Amino acid sequence: MCGVAGVLAGPRAEPAGLDELKRMIAMIGHRGPDGYGFYRDGRIGLAHARLSIVGLAGGFQPIHNEERTLWITFNGEIFNHVELRRDLEARGHRFYTRTDTEVIVHAFEEYGPAAWAKLNGQFAIGLWDAVKRELWLVRDRLGILPLFYARSGDHLAFASEAKALFGGGRIEPRFDAARLAQVFTHWSVAPQGSVFAGVQSVPPATAIRIDADLRLHEARYWEPDMAGDPALSRITLDEAADRLEEKLLDAIRLRLRADVPVGVYISGGLDSSVIAALARKLDTTQMHSFGVRFADNAFDETPQQRLVAGHVGTEHHDILCTAEDIQAALPDVIWHGESPLVRTAPAPLFLLSRLVRDSGIRVVLSGEGADEWLAGYDIFKEDKVRRFWARQPHSTARPKLLSRIHPYAATSGQKDSPLWQAFWKRGMTETDDPFYAHRIRWQNTAWTQRLLAPDVRSAANTQAFDEVVAAHLPAGWSRWSPLARTQWTEIAAFMSPYLLTSQGDRVAMANSIEVRYPFLDPEVDDLCAALPDRVKMLGLRDKLALRRVASRLLPAEIFHRPKRPYRAPMTTALFGAQAPAYVRDLLSEESLNRYGLVDAAGVAALAAKAHRTDGRMAGEREEMALVGVLTLQMLARNVLDELPGRASTLRTRLDAAPIHILEEHLDSAAAA
């Protein structure tokens, strides 16, 4: 993983100066602490911060083709680079490095835009064609890695993180009210945007070509087909498990390719445990594993983590996360994440990635993606029950099935409560709604918008999240099964814009750690999409094929274990007697009025209640609202007040770091 940045000048504009490029890349030096590289000509300026994983010697970027007409700044890993390189060499291409980055350049040279679909990896690409004077911005199939861009007059700037755009000086940090409101409903902005005005995100599976006149041409190079493969319609559960295990082994084998040691995350749940067990089948040398423990037993999974680590034979490391740890980490999480949060869950993962770094490991495998592709979340079960209930809306027995998904409702007697049933009954008969399963949750979370300022709330529907997602639904989506439609919505609207971002790339790269996801391998995902629903979820039993794989590898306590969502303490860690000074400061009347983004009176009342109860709130949405407001205030202070000082400090650090490539072809490019 690395950090990328660049500026493309229009045909009559001055090219970006070297100092501007240095200011940009300095802002994201945490993504690549091993050195910086630059390329400039009469139209483009490219910058790169390197984290050395593959091709440690001679792999500094930007990298070029033989004729030096194609230049690339690249963030990520191409896991099938060995196979692609072999094919390209057979076609006459000559390489000057051993890196996966150079493979992309030659693949584009050979195949043109068709190259993107051949890449098995996680990537964000900026590729400059000096002959055609075209810039390509390309992102991996599922948006594992970030890539932003913004227009400023006759220039277009791009970077791995928005702070690099601001650091260059061309783009002014301003908030987009409609997108802020999206966060307070959907946990993130829609995949095409950011919380900042004018700052766009390259969507997953998309290549954007910016031509010589700075016109943008956007095209998707991949779409899922989750209609199911008729050839697999009669597959047995054991056969499905065999195929899944085979694909996972291949995916892990590719992701163990590195010139540095590779570790593994172990949460104690099914998904990471399967990855750890399969990785040990392929690598019998010393392997390090990492997990988060919680001082609050309500969130802790220490026994399961240690059981798995002992069973598969890893050298296990863990951190004990306390309320004080969450308090200390949250400001860094917001600086790196560049978005408000309605959960504190990213903070322990930030601390975990720091543990990985301090242990001397740079790459870890993670189990993310299994719940989405193999139907492991409660939302899939809720959808099934509500559709069943919708056939007889007046039934009093059918809604009680929800207590099998949420057992606390049965033990508390809540399953018979009119309020409980009314909650789940909202929109229940609107089964043609493309977001049928998600709508009820989005409506519930939208309660948090009441703490936003009136003008921010009023912008909520001017750029509706669900409209953006609906406009990019894959062809044939309407013919998929209800389960498949709900799965893709979860992938497109939650996994890509939130899970892989706030709980993935941002907290890992803050500590220069690369996370790899075997469940997000294209071959694994294509298999999961092709499998019939019944080997993923049958009745209310989830992830059947994966559990069958796990039964061959892990103790019964793990492969029978119900899904336990990863969560972390929220307001109990941040409010009350133990509250850190920054909470009272950021939620003071002066600070609330300074940024004008929230309803100061409403925030003050809810915060006072939280302080009185030591953060024990009546409901989770109140907790989410307070965490959202607090982190929004943090972000506002970061980008509106503190950014110039931080930029100056980071720019000074860059001057002391090694610069391995500095090529300038201003005269020749200008002449072209």
Primary descriptors:
7-stranded mixed sheet, globular, 672 residues, alpha/beta
Unreliable spans: 668-672
Number of strands: 18
The global form is: globular
Helix content: 40-55%
Total of DSSP H or I helical runs spanning 4+ residues: 28
Strands side by side in the biggest sheet: 10-8-9-1-3-2-18
Query: Residue-averaged pLDDT, rounded?
Result: 93
Question: Main β-sheet, in a few words?
Answer: 7 strands, mixed
Euclidean distance between termini CA atoms: 33 Å
Taking Cα atoms only, what radius of gyration do you get, to the nearest Å?
25 Å
Strand content: 5-15%
* SS content category: alpha/beta
Can you put this structure into words, describing what you see?
With 672 residues, the chain is α/β, with parallel strands linked by helices. The protein has 28 helices and 18 strands. The protein has a seven-stranded mixed beta sheet. Strands 4-5-6-7-11-12 form a six-stranded antiparallel beta sheet. It has a five-stranded parallel beta sheet with strand order 15-14-13-16-17, sandwiched between helices. α7 links the parallel β13 (262-265) and β14 (288-294). The longest helix is centred in the last third of the chain and has 36 residues, at 620-655. The radius of gyration is 25 Å and the shape is globular. Mean pLDDT is 93; it is low at 668-672.
